[in-house]
Design brief:
mainly alpha, 172 residues, 72% helix
């Protein structure tokens, strides 16, 4: 299915296909395993950047799904742009400024678990993860989740897992 053949009101179906795409689900698994097992066993540069990379693949479709739940008639492309651009801009602000890191820590601590997010400009090296996220979107948009039962199942399984993975990340 080409982009032109995806109706404007298919934003939620495409965003959910993006969030439940195998590459995105793999990013979710990598993030959870890295944050809760590998970082403790093998602290260092690789495990430190791996979560950022996985998060940059996982967060854009997660944001796109949330946005399309709030704005159901949003187009698939608009949701994808909001997801990638929103995550990218937020990540750059948080990782390159002390004020951004402090604000992110405060928000995460208020809505999830106590968090300490640190500005670290070297984390910007993982920004190509956004390109991978966009590439996955270009694949997922061809196969929106059309059937209600499948959409419901993916929403009930993948969406909470993604939210928990992002919220329960280790110190970043």
């Amino acid at each position: 299915m080409s982009t032109a053949s995806v109706p404007a009101d298919q934003g939620a179906a495409v965003s959910l296909a993006w969030l439940s795409h195998p590459v995105t689900v793999l990013a979710l698994v990598v993030m959870v395993v890295n944050d809760h097992v590998l970082k403790a066993a093998y602290p260092g540069l690789v495990t430190g950047k791996l979560s950022d990379l996985a998060g940059l693949v996982l967060a854009p479709p997660l944001l796109a799904v949330v946005v399309t739940l709030l704005v159901p008639r949003l187009s698939a492309r608009a949701a994808a742009v909001i997801g990638v651009a929103g995550v990218g801009i937020g990540f750059v602000i948080v990782k390159s400024t002390a004020a951004g890191a402090a604000a992110a820590s405060a928000v995460c601590s208020a809505v999830a678990v106590p968090s300490l997010i640190r500005a670290d400009a070297t984390d910007l090296l993982t920004l190509p993860g956004l390109a991978l996220a966009w590439w996955v979107w270009t694949r997922a948009r061809r196969r929106p989740v059309a059937r209600r039962l499948v959409r419901l199942a993916r929403t009930v399984v993948v969406l909470p897992a993604a939210v928990l993975a992002v919220a329960a990340t280790s110190e970043i």
